[in-house]
Write a structure and sequence with these properties.
There is one protein chain. This protein has 235 residues and is α/β, with parallel strands linked by helices. The protein contains 7 helices and 9 strands, in the order αβαβαββαββαβαββα. Strands 1, 2, 3, 4, 7, 8 and 9 form a 7-stranded mixed sheet that branches. Helix 2 crosses helix 7. The N and C termini lie far apart (42 Å).
Amino acid sequence: MLYRRALALVDEANDLEQAAHALSAGWEAEIRIAAEILFPSRLLLACLDRFGQESPGTRLELIESVLGGTSDALLKGEADLVISPQLPPGFLGDPLMRIRLRAVAHADHPLHHYDRELTYRDLRAYRHVVVRDSGANRDRRTATVEVDQRWTVSQVATSIQAVCMGYGFAWLPEEHIREELRTGMLRPLPLREGGTREASLYLILANPDFAGPGVRRLAEIIRESVGSEYFFKME
């Protein structure tokens, strides 16, 4: 019991030391952000630019992660601020936004020639493009369907390009494929069920009690930007 208590006291002392350094130096010299790749990159970059104009002396390190990889960055102490689809044990976060994913394929893909509603059985004969969970303990079954052919990639941009080239189908975030849907290059698959999926994203401070002014300001900018663009709150 004494040993566990001593470890807790050492951790608290380290937190106090870090907080003292941050306060004495003003805004942090560096801020590390881990962001789930489902979060719109154009919006995130705009937030980073806005923050950079307010604190040009603060360096920003962006970790782009998928599912469990975002939680790993938080649990390993590799990030000060996190946008995650999960709330790891021991952490609290604020609901930030919902992301909608649509099952899509190229307009000329054979799945669009059935002229009827599709079922998961229809998908089995075609290639499914999946983005790999970047977490250390990833679940290979996450957000996928049982098919004979599958490509697993590490970036959503690669998945989008593969689908745009007609190499398969995928569930892709609507925000990332606005132009492709508008031009008709990609078309939603007429699935009887499951054609649309939703993911919730949370904004998490790694250590809210000792977060520096820069981390808090960047979190505020992200909240404001999401709120002004999407005009809705999670229920």
